[in-house]
Amino acid sequence: MRFQILHRSPGRLRLRACVRSMTAGQADLLEAWLLAAQSVERVTIQENICSVTVCYRGDPAAVTARLAAFSYTRMQ
Fewest Cβ atoms nearer than 10 Å: which of 8, 12, 15, 36? Predict the structure, then answer.
């Protein structure tokens, strides 16, 4: 799955998922996938606008690598 970084600040990324739409179930899968990473502290997803906010500690490259590896088909 692809994501566009909309805003970046230390410890926080705000992204837009490059999908046409996202269901509540898909948002839950993405949230669980991200929260499984030790560096991720909090995830907020607004499925109606495909927006994802990730609060993390440490290296942002670990979070972006985790996002790049995400796929709904692998999770189901």
Answer: 36
